[in-house]
Amino acid sequence: MNWLAHIFLSEQNIHYQLGNLLADPCKGRAFPGANTAFKQGMNMHMDIDAFTDSHPDFLTSKSRLNKKGHLKGVVIDLTYDVFLTQYWHEYSKIGLDEFLDGFYLEARQAMASYPKELSAFVEKLIQVDHLRNYRNLTELEFTFSRVDKRLSANVLKRECTSQYLPLIEDNFSLLAEDFKRFFPDLLQHVKAKAQINNLAHWQPGTR
Fold first, then answer.
1. Mean pLDDT per 10-residue section of the chain, whose length is 207 residues
2. What is the rounded distance in angstroms from the CA atom of residue 73 to the CA atom of residue 103?
């Protein structure tokens, strides 16, 4: 799953959310002085990734791209955030705009105690408002182009995320069905490992 999902799947504690968001930039290692909630969020991030990567419906989604490639998982992660955005009301009691506005406000306040490189990462994410830009295929295409700009020249010789867009378009409804089978399983997996009282932003049916 990608950034939006990791924040949504977090307990409602800003440091937990930031740990879940920043696990990849931190390369799985908490910065010196990180609090317990941040470390718990990082652990949940890695647990979510492991669950996702082995789930049959996620693997089915990857297989729909019809190509061998190291970026298929990234492509499906990003595409699943589109579906999370589109079906947000089925999983969240809080509207997406309200949820993200609250996260941005709390994240900026929390960043005062974080290392500069992590603060800069989060601030850029907020300024670009990237978490709100998964509403449709046009915005997904823009996201793919942003990802491709960060890929190394060696990777780009083999593949890029943008090349998968036609396959995403052709299989969009099938990928949506994959997601709607997969995501409830992920919610149950997270619920079993989290403090249920801290998931009050989830719809009652998912808790």
1. 94 96 90 94 96 97 89 95 96 96 96 93 92 91 92 91 95 98 97 92 84
2. 26
Q: Kindly state the DSSP code that residue 171 receives in the 8-state scheme.
A: T
Separation between Cα atoms, residue 21 and residue 5, nearest integer Å: 9
Question: Which CA distances in Å does 146 have to 91, 127, 150?
Answer: 28, 15, 7
Angle at 185 between CA 82 and CA 143, to 5 degrees: 20
Let me know: does 118 contact 26? Beta carbons within 8 Å. yes
Closest CA to 134 of 178, 97, 83, 93: 83
- Would you list the DSSP string of 106-158? HHHHHGGGS-HHHHHHHHHHHHHTGGG--SSHHHHHHHHHHHHHHS-HHHHHH
- For residue 79, which of 21, 146, 160, 164 has the smallest C-alpha distance? 164
What lies within 8 Å, CB to CB, of 182 at 6+ separation is: 52, 55, 57, 58, 61, 80
| CA dist., res. 85 & res. 133, Å (int) | 9
φ, ψ (nearest 5 deg) of residue 19: -60, -40
Query: Residue 115: left (phi > 0), alpha (psi -120 to 50), or beta?
Result: beta
